[in-house]
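Extended Data, panel c. Modelled sequence:
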Amino acid sequence: MIEIRHKTSGVVLQLVEAETLRGANLSGAGLHGADLCRAGLSDADLHGANLSDADLSGADLSGAGLHGADLSRAGLSDANLSYANLSYANLSYANLRGADLRGADLSDTATVPFGGGSYHGCVTPTELFVGCVRLALDAIPADDDEAAWDALHEMAWDWWSRYGGMVRAAIDAVADEREAVMARVEADDNPDDEGN
């Protein structure tokens, strides 16, 4: 049984079974620390919900067609999203600081956003964006190359030291998409001449 609490007052608004949350409107819900392990949340509206420290491991946050769960502006800091199905989920402006994304299915999500300090960013299948810095994934310096990070920006090394692990997890999460993009680019660069 899950207690859904009001975001600011903490008053319990509803008690629900985790399995029955498909398509539920939980926008702005206070779900801090909730146990949503393997919950069926496909197509749910979790816009602006507080899911910090929540256990969403193995949860289904996917969706039918082109829309999955709406996690835009959701607080997912330190949430356990390991092995969660996030395909087609909307993660726009979600706070994923410290979130565990190991094994999560992020296929068909356009970006994986993350936050940290004053610099927020996202990972696409080909690039890392942090603040106003844009960097191809294959141009990211090694994790321990302080000089290379300092050459990018005066605060880059400090930022990477704190958030690099999370960014690497986000990069791993979109690796399949990146490979698909690169395959399409290669196919466009090398058209098949057969039949011409």
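Residues 150 and 157 are 6 Å apart (CA to CA). This feature is highlighted in the accompanying rendering.
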